[in-house]
Fold:
Amino acid sequence: MIDYVVSKKKKKKLSKKAILRIVLFLFLVLIILFCFYYFKVVCPIIVNISQEKVRSIATSTISTVVGDVMSDENLTYDDLVKITYSSENKVELIEIDTIEINVIIREITARVQEKFDTLGQEGITISLGTFTGIPFLFGLGPDVSIKLVPVGTVNTKVSSNFNEAGINQTIHRLYFIVQSNIGMVLPAMTQNFTTELEVLLCESIIVGEIPSVYLQGSMI
Structure:
């Protein structure tokens, strides 16, 4: 009789251990499935939404900075480009004031970098429902803050192009191209990407025949 009771207790103990193992196994499976779902489904959605928000903010920031710098400097096309005509009203030389351009580039680069540093402190917010990866829950729930980390430096350069505007008339445009690297610190991962924006600096219609060396190439 005593042996029977001992055997019964052992069976109960074995049964509890088996249940515990099953629970732990199921818990581990759930964790693996959750991680798989998060990295394969949720993360791409979060990255895409975050990139769109950051690009929108970066575009607005760069456009504002370029406009502010040009307004502060009160520069026009004639301040940056010098055109020399021949006696036959043909364009002999088109010169870019590289000194003035470099001053503007340094100012724009410094201001954009400063703005991005501030943006990194503020970050962006994404609703908690978006993290589920379920479309109809996007935008629902409390906001989750995503930290932004400026990576590297902001690069600014100038480009130009010529477009025909009529007989012996050509539109010459100068553009600023501002490129920056931004990093996002997402839950359990980081993501880096590059933003690039082309902003019109100034333009003017040049009257007279322009040498093909300018029309076929870049001045800057």
User: Anything to note?
Assistant: The helical segments are 2-73, 77-80, 98-122, 212-215.
